[in-house]
Amino acid sequence: MPEKPNRSVLILVLAFVACVWDGGVPLTHSSEPEPAYHQGGKLDGSLKSALPLAVYHADSNHLWNRLFAAFYTRSSNLPSRPGGKPITRIEGGDYLDFLGWGNTEYWSDPATTKKLNLLLDEFLEAGGSRMIDDPLRRAVLLRDLWAAHDFLTDQNIRRFGPLETRHRRDRLCGKLARAIESLALSPAAIKKLPDTYAAAIHSGHFARKQDFASSNDYLPHGLLTKPDEWVEIDFHQPDIHEDLYDRFLTMHARNYRGRSYFRVFYRFPDGRAQLTDYLKRLDQTGVDWRQAAEFGFILLKIDAPQIPAGTEVALIQFMMTLDDQLRPTPTKIVESVRHRTYRNNDGTSEPYTNTEVGMHVMEYTFKRRLLFDNLNQGGLHREPDDRRLYRVIFQPADARDWGTRGREPLFRQCVSCHMTPSAKRTGVHSIQTIVHMGGFGVGAQPGIAHALDPAQSATHATRVTRWKTKHETYRRLLERLNR
Question: What pTM, to 2 d.p., does this model score?
Answer without folding.
Answer: 0.91
